């Protein structure tokens, strides 16, 4: 487009300059027009960003200088393809038609050495005077018709390009709407499944926990009654055993009540996923690796009768990446929970090192019985340690866990300081 526009302007200037003497002022003006015509087509390079400015500049060049209207017609096509609106379309088409007619008529009125309207074998190249077959009005009318045809072609080309672009946009919107409908359908199916799971959990798990708490309360009452009777009979041993049973059943009842509350909380999460996301996000924000959170985890574990030996060396935790801190907290939490679940009563060794040069290193180990290794690492997809390992790898860390030759289970995690 740039080459064609510049060449058309140069050709029109060369034809117009033939009527002037080389030592005249108009001929010098033609030379200046040639110098401007060479880079004139470069304005079309800006048609994507500034289509209106390019169009009006092209029209001004054609009107003010003896240039061909091709550059204005190209700018018209680009403008119509990139801008919508009835006013813009009518105004630009009218301006292009006026400019093109002016250019064609101006060229037609120049003295000609040859013409399609002249008698054959007449003109300067044949060494005689050119004889015209039509009058000047016919020539002007022909120039106007040619100009209007050129404007019509440029206009239709621009409108066609615009319609194709609009069709692509509409197709993209339709595809996006279909994808959104598909996502909504999937979300609805998932929510229906979650509602079914919640209902099943409410009917089975919650009911079982309620019965467990109720039976624990009944056993506690019977134990207290047995203790009272033993004390009346003076049997201290039976009274002491009954008291221990009553205390244990009280712990069972309390734990069952807490588990029941947690089960109801999980059921509510399944039924209300949006609230669950906010709640889990809040929990993640609170569960970050700090000195207080570490002491709280260790204190809770020891309160549950876990024997823990700790080696903790943490520095500048306030500068630790927030997402890394959350993952590290869950590593310590999952390590202690894993021991409590699969190796109750086993001593635990916990090591936590954190500093900017080395990142975060968490190591949890505990001995196990020979028959327990197969139960220490839950291999279900997304559950327990496998799910935690995937999260650690996504953060750029490493997670290794397993047993050594002495049936000692090890969980070793390294995380970068910045995620």
Helix amount, in percent? 55-70%
User: How many E strands?
Assistant: 5
Q: Name the shape in a single word.
A: elongated
Q: Regions with pLDDT < 50 over 5+ consecutive residues?
A: 378-383
What number is the mean pLDDT? 82
Summed up:
This protein is α+β, with helices and mostly antiparallel strands and 419 residues long. Helix content is 66%, strand content 9%. Strands 1-2-3-5-4 form a 5-stranded mixed β-sheet, covered by helices on one side.
Topology, pairings included?
Blueprint: H1 2-17, H2 25-40, H3 51-64, H4 70-82, H5 86-108, H6 136-203, H7 205-233, H8 236-271, H9 273-286, H10 291-303, E1 308-314, H11 322-342, E2 348-355, E3 359-367, H12 373-376, H13 384-394, E4 398-403, E5 408-415
Parallel strand pairs: 1-2
Antiparallel strand pairs: 2-3, 3-5, 4-5
Helix pairs in contact: 1-2, 3-4, 3-5, 4-5, 4-6, 5-6, 6-8, 7-8, 8-9, 10-11, 11-13
Task: Give a written overview of the molecule.
The protein is α+β, with helices and mostly antiparallel strands and 419 residues long. The protein is built from 13 helices and five strands. The protein has a five-stranded mixed β-sheet with strand order 1-2-3-5-4, with helices on one face. α11 (322-342) links the parallel β1 and β2. α4 runs parallel beside α6 and α5 (86-108) packs antiparallel against α6. It is elongated and about 150 Å long.
């Amino acid at each position: 487009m740039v080459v064609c526009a510049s060449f058309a302007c140069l050709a029109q200037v060369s034809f117009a300059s033939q009527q002037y003497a080389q030592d005249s002022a108009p001929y010098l003006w033609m030379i200046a027009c040639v110098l401007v015509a060479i880079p004139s087509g470069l304005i079309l390079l800006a048609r994507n960003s500034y289509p209106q400015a390019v169009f009006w500049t092209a029209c001004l060049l054609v009107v003010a200088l003896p240039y061909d209207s091709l550059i204005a017609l190209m700018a018209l096509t680009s403008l119509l393809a990139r801008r919508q609106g009835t006013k813009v379309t009518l105004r630009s088409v009218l301006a292009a038609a006026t400019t093109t007619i002016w250019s064609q008529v101006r060229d037609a009125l120049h003295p000609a050495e040859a013409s399609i309207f002249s008698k054959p074998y007449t003109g300067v190249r044949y060494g005689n005077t050119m004889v015209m077959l039509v009058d000047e009005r016919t020539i002007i009318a022909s120039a106007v018709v040619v100009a209007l045809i050129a404007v019509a072609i440029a206009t239709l080309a621009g409108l066609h390009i615009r319609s194709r672009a609009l069709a692509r946009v509409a197709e993209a919107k339709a595809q996006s709407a279909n994808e959104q409908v598909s996502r909504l359908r999937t979300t609805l199916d998932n929510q229906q499944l979650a509602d079914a799971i919640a209902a099943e959990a409410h009917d089975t798990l919650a009911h079982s926990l309620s019965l467990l708490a109720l039976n624990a309360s009944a056993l506690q009452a019977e134990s207290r009654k047995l203790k009272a009777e033993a004390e009346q009979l003076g049997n201290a041993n039976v009274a002491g055993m009954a008291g221990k049973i009553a205390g244990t059943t009280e712990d069972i009842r309390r734990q069952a009540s807490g588990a029941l509350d947690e089960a109801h909380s999980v059921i509510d999460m399944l039924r209300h996923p949006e609230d669950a996301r906010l709640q889990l996000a809040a929990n993640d924000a609170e569960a970050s690796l700090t000195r207080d959170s570490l002491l709280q985890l260790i204190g809770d574990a020891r309160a549950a009768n876990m024997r823990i030996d700790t080696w903790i060396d943490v520095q500048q935790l306030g500068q630790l990446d927030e997402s890394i801190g959350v993952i590290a907290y869950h590593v310590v939490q999952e390590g202690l929970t894993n021991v409590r679940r699969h190796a109750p009563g086993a001593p635990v060794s916990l090591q936590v090192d954190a500093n900017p040069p080395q990142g975060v290193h968490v190591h949890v180990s505990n001995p196990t019985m020979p028959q327990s290794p197969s139960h220490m690492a839950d291999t279900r997809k997304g559950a327990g340690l496998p799910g935690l390992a995937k999260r650690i790898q996504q953060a750029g860390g490493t997670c290794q866990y397993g047993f050594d030759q002495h049936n000692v289970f090890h969980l070793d995690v390294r995380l970068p300081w910045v995620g």
